[in-house]
Design brief:
- This protein is mainly beta and 445 residues long.
- 7% of the residues lie in helices and 38% in strands.
- It has 3 helices and 28 strands.
- The protein has a 5-stranded antiparallel beta sheet with strand order 8-10-11-12-13, with no helix packed on it. Strands 14, 15, 16, 17 and 18 form a 5-stranded antiparallel beta sheet that branches. Strands 2-3-4-5 form a 4-stranded antiparallel beta sheet.
- A hairpin with a 5-residue loop joins strand 6 and strand 7.
- The termini are far apart.
């Protein structure tokens, strides 16, 4: 009898997980949903796609970070071969009422977790794990001690030697600079690489997409400019590349760049006028030839509807293609976090140069979707819906280390609702999960 009871205890979690995975109301063929626990959902602070990273993997384990219903930062860890999470309250608390205050984590080559959170034009909040792989975090720490008073949009990137880069904005919307720090794995210390890397010169602000690191270890960076705190003043897509982990930069023709980048000396990959509903902080990747591909969204002059688009370099020149045909117009005019019918897009590129653009659109019931193109010219696209139900205002965030090392797609997943500005929805904490997509079972063409 005792043995039977123990067997039941062992089997129940797997039975529950099986039904969550296979619940037809939530996921489609080739998709597994791995639940973690419930988290804050009254805005998109947990699901804003500029978090770098919300979920990441290292040495056979996956780590995830998010706010709980009371604003405490939770860290989770699971063996990649298991669906069982260990979740710990770090004791650090944030202000989830502002959707800009996302949590970002990065893991250095020793297995130490670095975390930054709760910053929208505020003092840097940073800590790291006490031991490799541990969910126990230190108290708040300075990083370099320089330009840490008005920080927003923290992003961690792991380099090939296990060192880290930390990219962030210092200043305000319409009046800010992008800073770049480096963590040396050997010495365990941070230093300023470029303060600033991109300068708004006190009269505009750059908004970077996620950095792309190609298979040769080169960094690719793209960004748009904003001329004031009004989101509608976003314009242009600029580009630069570094072969030495951010120390020196050049343009797509290989010409050395003078730093910091300014509006006048930056390579304009694509000219986009203000008031084109250009979405800031989207995503980029590279193809097998280490050429940049930027996934974004804007409305062309003379049209009413913003469309998802790619801007990419074909080895000779920059090109632009539309990845679908939307029908619903929207406006980005105003300040703060905008409630719009689409997510920012997130791009991945496979070793065969097949392009995957993950997105959410109310025209498709706010389900998790991916647009796929195996066409060399990127003209032919088909869309897969990966869930059967709506995830409201969720935006896609990818475990990029797992994708890069194993070719496995894992997305941070949670239903969240965003009110225009910084309003709060009347929504109880919702389940945070990881969505795993098996492309081989669902992708054709």
């Amino acid at each position: 009898m005792t043995a039977l009871f123990i067997l039941i205890l062992l089997l129940v979690p797997f039975v529950v997980i099986f039904f969550i995975f296979r619940d037809g109301s939530r996921a489609k063929a080739g998709v597994i949903i791995i639940p973690v626990c419930r988290g804050w959902a009254r805005n998109t602070v947990n699901t804003g796609s500029f978090r770098q990273s919300s979920v990441t993997s290292y040495d056979g384990f996956q780590y995830i970070a998010f706010y709980d219903g009371d604003g405490f930062v939770l860290l989770g860890k699971r063996d990649l071969g298991s669906a069982q999470w260990t979740v710990r309250n770090t004791g650090h608390r944030g202000n989830p009422w502002d959707a800009h205050n996302g949590i970002s984590i990065g893991i250095d080559g020793r297995g130490i977790i670095h975390m930054a959170w709760d910053m929208h034009e505020r003092k840097l909040r940073y800590c790291h794990s006490r031991e490799p792989g541990s969910l126990e975090m230190t108290e708040e720490l300075p990083m370099t001690g320089l330009h840490e008073n008005t920080v927003s949009y923290p992003q961690f990137y792991t380099l090939s030697d296990g060192s880290l880069l930390f990219l962030y904005r210092h200043g305000e919307s319409g009046c800010g600079d992008v800073m770049l720090n480096r963590f040396d794995r050997k010495t365990g210390t941070w230093s300023a690489t470029h303060h600033p890397l991109i300068s708004g010169e006190g009269r505009r602000s750059p908004y970077t997409n996620n950095l792309a690191i190609d298979h040769r270890g080169r960094l690719h960076m793209s960004w748009c400019w904003r001329e004031s705190s009004d989101v509608a003043t976003n314009h242009d897509i600029c580009y630069a590349c570094s072969h030495d982990e951010g120390r020196h930069w050049h343009d797509s023709a290989g010409t050395a760049c003078t730093l910091p980048f300014l509006a006048e000396n930056s390579e304009r990959a694509w000219a986009i006028p203000q008031r084109s509903e250009l979405i800031n902080q989207t995503s980029m990747a590279t193809d097998s030839g280490c050429r940049p591909i930027i996934s974004t969204c804007w409305r062309k002059e003379g049209t009413r509807v913003p469309q998802f688009r790619l801007v990419f370099h074909d080895g000779t020149r920059w090109r632009e293609v539309q990845t679908g045909q939307r029908k619903t117009p929207f406006s980005l005019s105003g300040r703060g976090t905008k409630a719009i019918p689409v997510s920012r897009p997130r791009i991945l590129v496979g070793p065969d140069d097949r392009v995957y653009v993950f997105f959410r659109d109310r025209e498709r019931g706010s389900r998790v979707c991916v647009a796929v193109s195996g066409d060399a010219q990127r003209q032919a696209w088909h869309v897969r819906e990966l869930t059967r139900t709506s995830y409201a205002d969720w935006e896609p965030m990818v475990d990029e280390s797992l994708w890069r090392e194993q070719g496995i797609v894992n997305l941070f997943l949670q239903k969240t609702i965003q009110k225009d500005g910084e309003g709060l929805a009347d929504l109880n904490p919702q389940m945070v999960s990881v969505l795993e997509w098996n492309m081989e079972k669902t992708t054709t063409g």
